[in-house]
Amino acid sequence: MTFIPESGYFKTPNTTPAGTSKKVAFDNPYLTKDEYITTSEAIGLGIDATDPRYSSGELERKILAASAAVNRYCKRYFDTQTIDETKTGFTVKPMNPRMVSNILRNGPYQKVNSVYLQVLNWFIQIDIANQGYFQDFPDYGYYRLVPLLSTAGTGVPLPAAIVDKIPLGVLWTNYRFGYGEDYFGDTLLKVSSECKQYQAILGKRLWAPREPTKVYVNAVEVTSGFSIKYTDGLVEFDNPQGANDIVTADFTTNETIPADIKQAVILMVTYSLGQAAQNALGATSYSIQTYSISFGSENAIEKRWKELLDPYVLEYPQLI
């Protein structure tokens, strides 16, 4: 069984050009629990691998919640995912042609895989391989399509006549985004004496759960008989492997997201754990005879993570 912690899940009924369910972005953790317990913040709270919160799953849930909060604040995602995104309400004027610009919600994106124009229940594939029809600006988070100005020819770019006066079209874009890094044939360390658990080294353990992941034993791919825990970069086999077997994997790690994003998550988790321990009732203040303490709505930790995240808040580019 594969364990994929996530939040913000909803099943979309939208059918893509491929006939499958629409792939939407998910909240995934930006930090492993093993990374967190090495930070000065965790040490200050006295949290290590022996802490009940480490083994119970509470620490992982806190990290996921903090990562989701980062996504909401920045209006974007930072881990690597491949999703379908739709845009509606645009027209193309054949008699007054202009390029159609599509701003993607997550950037910088790595690659646009496909673009389709949907009109009612029909899909028309846009020829994005032809650089004469498709202009790509991944650093700025958008691409441009050239409208078709005649009815002749093959390799159709954007068929302007279909979306002339009425914003009938829906533009479907399948693309890959995020700051993750791909690894191929990376050796996993044996972490159990019975030769069943193998793990990536610290610094590569935060695997992207919906990007292609392959496991090999002695350079031969295996497709069953194991499970993957993506938040730990951990592969667990149903049966023991040989003592001298070498286990490798192809995966995408999100350890390479910006350090500011990770630090913001660390601060949020630390504040959440500290509040749970010291102010479990969520009171605004405590008073005991001559002693009192107040919990303000804004604190130094909140100011710090906002300072870290403000440069990453998504601002749509101005298209000229």
Plain-language structure description:
With 320 residues, the chain is of the alpha+beta class. The protein has a domain at 81-177. The chain has six helices and 19 strands. A four-stranded antiparallel beta sheet has the order 1-9-3-4, with no helix packed on it. The protein has a four-stranded antiparallel beta sheet with strand order 10-17-13-14, with no helix packed on it. Helix 4 packs across helix 5 (259-278) and helix 5 (259-278) runs antiparallel to helix 6. The longest helix has 20 residues, at 259-278.
What is the strand content?
A: 25-35%
Structural class: alpha+beta
Largest sheet, spatial ordering of strands: 1-9-3-4
Q: Helix amount, in percent? A: 10-25%
What is the distance, rounded to the nearest whole angstrom, between the alpha carbons of the first and last residues? 50 Å
Question: How many helices does DSSP assign?
Answer: 6
- Given as residue ranges, the uncertain stretches (5+ residues, pLDDT < 50) are 1-6, 149-156
Overall pLDDT metric: 82
The ordered string of helix (H) and strand (E) elements is: HHHHEEEEEEEEEEEEEEEEEHEEH
The number of distinct β-strands equals 19
Radius of gyration: 24 Å
- Dominant shape: flat
> Could you give a short account of the major beta sheet?
4 strands, antiparallel
